[in-house]
Amino acid sequence: MTARSDLYAVIMAGGSGTRFWPLSRGARPKQLLGILGGPTMIQATVARLQPLIPAERVLVVTTAALAEETRRQLPMLKPEHVIAEPVGRDTAACVCLAAVVIERLHPGATMVLLPADQIIEPADAFQRALAVGADLAAQRRLVTYGIAPRFPATGYGYIRVGDSLSQDNGIGVNQVERFVEKPDEETAKVYVAEGTYRWNAGIFCWRSDVVLGELEQHCPWLTAALAPLADHWGRADFASVLDGIYQPLRKISIDYALMEKAKDIVVVTGEFSWDDLGSWDALYDHLPHDPAGVISQGQVVTHDCLDSLFYNSGRQTLVAQGVEGMTVVVTPDAILILPKGRSQEVKKVVDALKASGRADLL
Amino acid sequence: MTARSDLYAVIMAGGSGTRFWPLSRGARPKQLLGILGGPTMIQATVARLQPLIPAERVLVVTTAALAEETRRQLPMLKPEHVIAEPVGRDTAACVCLAAVVIERLHPGATMVLLPADQIIEPADAFQRALAVGADLAAQRRLVTYGIAPRFPATGYGYIRVGDSLSQDNGIGVNQVERFVEKPDEETAKVYVAEGTYRWNAGIFCWRSDVVLGELEQHCPWLTAALAPLADHWGRADFASVLDGIYQPLRKISIDYALMEKAKDIVVVTGEFSWDDLGSWDALYDHLPHDPAGVISQGQVVTHDCLDSLFYNSGRQTLVAQGVEGMTVVVTPDAILILPKGRSQEVKKVVDALKASGRADLL
User: Fold this and answer.
1) Residue B345 near chain A (CB below 8 Å)
2) Which chain A residue is nearest to residue B318, measuring alpha carbons?
3) Residue A2: pLDDT band by 50, 70, 90 thresholds?
């Protein structure tokens, strides 16, 4: 594994996720929670990069509301490396902003972009895949990461892989044939059966100058808007200049702005397990359960229960008797109860609370 | 309806009930809770006697631990009429104690004994039945109250009725043929089908001198022990004398001590509805529910739920999404979740908490 001294990481941590309501809140989204016990997801994300990418070369792009707590959780990062977007303008702006900053810090550096709230194990397999991608990126390739699908997920985008460029030490490198949107279940089953599809992990690697060049070609208004920012890095007016640039920007994702347009993208498929932990049901696979399939976190007493998740971060004792197939989450100001397997409905709950003016709970 | 000026009521309120855990606690049993909203059950019990038995002729027998709160909830009662048993010695001792006191207050008075935690409606039908029983009691009869069974309950004792003595204005009076213990379901079905059985409501009426005479005949050690108390009524040493008498007493219920032995008991069957509210499931019938059968008490938000009870007396917002057939109870220090229809299992929960040293929750 090559330890490149020009390799930077950019952790995208702007999510305001509500999928773990009532535990996750606007002011405390999933990445800032230790939802599995132990470190928070963003702390785990930084730790998982070590030693390949030391903390001094890790940047975080987050929101103004979350920047202070993010810096508090990541004291090993330079405070100015936690960059606060004044408003959310989708992923292409985030990538472009990060590339402008990194190109300023280290011209021609290689940068890995990754979400703050994924579960990836083990770290060494992940770092080996990152290193393979970084070497390709240093050769001016655009690199994305794919996950061999474990089931016909309908919640992820997919990547259809083309020619194999290498297959070494468990790490496959292929040409990207095309990116495809979240499929319906029928289609997802076909994708899984065919073996030529990967889940799109939302992890990318490229040189800062290369991605700026690509964006200039495919989305020139974006680079034109952000380029002037380089001169303000490290200066007192950085935040206000960023604000002036960001406010009028229209939103566009990196997928639309770049990935679906660029030629010659490669996909690296590693031997690590990956979960973007999109719901309470997904969490079920990551916490220890008893022989009856019952997960108890916090102050929980269960009798005769089956196949349920009891997640108590409140002060009360939670007692469940004869409960089957339920998810129960307790926080100091809210309690959520819903059937296991239906945790995508948390979104409905959050929408309804919003509609009924219960912003205090969001 | 005769308004007898010699008619007293004795409310038996010693229950430490755990069947409504976590709402009911050792220090706050069911009768001291406003479980239906509004007045507490003991307050409702006193109110239900008005105007037949005015507050100055109502006594309460409770435990030392509950006496203060009971007096606080019933400021219209004379404080000394809330009598605290130093220890629980079952219902025969309670009845004998009350009879000794009432005989001292008003020799030859008629006394109705009734539990503090039943739901009886409407009050006027109940009072009419009480008045009929009181007139019979004044003629030196032992009177008990029966409820026409609505379903084959296995949680109640039954009374088999004999000859009809009168049937007037919806109130039946019969000779008691015999008292029977809580039946199994098969037997209960037979009882309901035969039409000659009543639920034993645990409500009695008799003259104080008559019941003391009957107890002297059937349980002489009890009257011998309690008789000396009469001389201490209204004196500073009443509580300590009562303590000295009660501590060594062995426990015996009024059913064993008297009802199953005495000849010539009559049973009054009234036209009031009656529920001893023995469980969370029983409560379900007494609270308003929406068209989907969902009861929401307190701060509760439900979507797509069916046939469930959400009882929130905590400070959190309780949100239920897609929940069917569950009972959920929230208090500031405990949350209980169990399937609807299985609320008799609350006892298991309480026993387990006791066994595991969680007296703080009991």
Assistant:
1) yes
2) A335
3) low
CATH topology of domain A7-275: Spore Coat Polysaccharide Biosynthesis Protein SpsA; Chain A (3.90.550)
Domain extent listing, chain A: 7-275, 280-361
User: What is the C-alpha to C-alpha distance for residues B113 and B101, in angstroms, rounded to an integer?
Assistant: 13
Residue-level pLDDT at B1: 55
Tokens standing for A307?
């196949």
> Which residues of chain A does B22 touch, with a Cβ-Cβ cutoff of 8 Å?
319
Q: What is the pLDDT of residues A109-121, one digit of tens each?
A: 999 999 999 999 9
Q: What is the largest CA-CA distance in chain A?
A: 64
Q: What is the pLDDT of residues B272-308, one digit of tens each?
A: 999 888 889 988 888 999 999 999 999 999 999 999 9
Q: Does B349 contact chain A (CB < 8 Å)? A: yes
B334 CA to chain A: closest CA distance, Å? 5
What does the pLDDT read at residue B195? 92
Output the average pLDDT for chain A: 94
Q: Determine contact: A355 vs chain B, CB below 8 A.
A: no
pLDDT at position B2 over 70? no
Helix axes B64-73, B41-48, angle to 10 degrees: 60
Residue B257 confidence (pLDDT)? 95
C-alpha distances in Å from residue A346, one per residue of A280, A340, B338: 9, 11, 21
A356 in reach of chain B (CB within 8 A) = yes
Q: What is the pTM of this model?
A: 0.85
Are B352 and A303 inside 8 Å of each other by CB? yes
Q: How far apart are CA A292 and CA A340, in angstroms?
A: 14
> What ipTM was reported for this prediction?
0.83
Task: Say whether B348 and A319 touch across the interface (CB within 8 A).
Answer: no
Alpha-carbon distance values, A46 to A39, A56, A119 (Å) = 10, 11, 12
With CA atoms as reference, the chain B residue closest to A347 would be B321
Q: How far does CA A286 lie from the centroid of its chain? A: 17
Residue in A301, A323, A333 closest to B316 by CB:
A333
Strands A334-339 and A317-321 turn out to be unpaired
**Contact call for residues B325 and B311 (beta carbons, < 8 A):** no
According to the model, what pLDDT value does residue A282 have? 87
